């Protein structure tokens, strides 16, 4: 598989993991102090740089597992039915 296919898979995985990581550690303004002119449920501090680093680390681990299974061991989506016993 070409390198740009792996880059595309990493990119898609990164966005999926980002949406899973975004809600962690968010506290609304109703828990801290309310800034005038904003919604009370809006987050007071997002910390996007930290979340981007966590997302990159988690994605790297998931991608390493995917790369190990596909490039090193040679598994593909065609091998999935071979794990399930054939019932007749």
Describe this protein's structure.
The protein is mainly α. It has one domain (3-78). 50% of the residues lie in helices and 0% in strands. The longest helix has 25 residues, at 48-72. The protein is elongated, with a radius of gyration of 20 Å.
Summing up helix and strand content along with how strands pair, one would put the structural category as mainly alpha
Alpha carbon gap, first and last residue: 36 Å
- Major sheet: size, sense and barrel closure? none
The parts where pLDDT drops under 50 for at least 5 residues are none
Shape: elongated
Fraction in beta strands: under 5%
Radius of gyration: 20 Å
Task: Summarize the SSE layout with pairings.
Elements: H1 3-21, H2 48-72
Helix pairs in contact: 1-2
Short description:
The chain is mainly α and 88 residues long.
What are the main properties of this structure?
mainly alpha; 88 residues
